[in-house]
Amino acid sequence: MRKFCDASTARRELLHTIKIRKVAYLGHVLRHERYDLLQLIMMGKVAGRRGVGRRKKSWLRNIREWTGIASAAELFRLAKDTQEFTKLTANLR
Question: Is 79 within 8 Å of 26 (Cβ atoms)?
Answer without folding.
Answer: yes
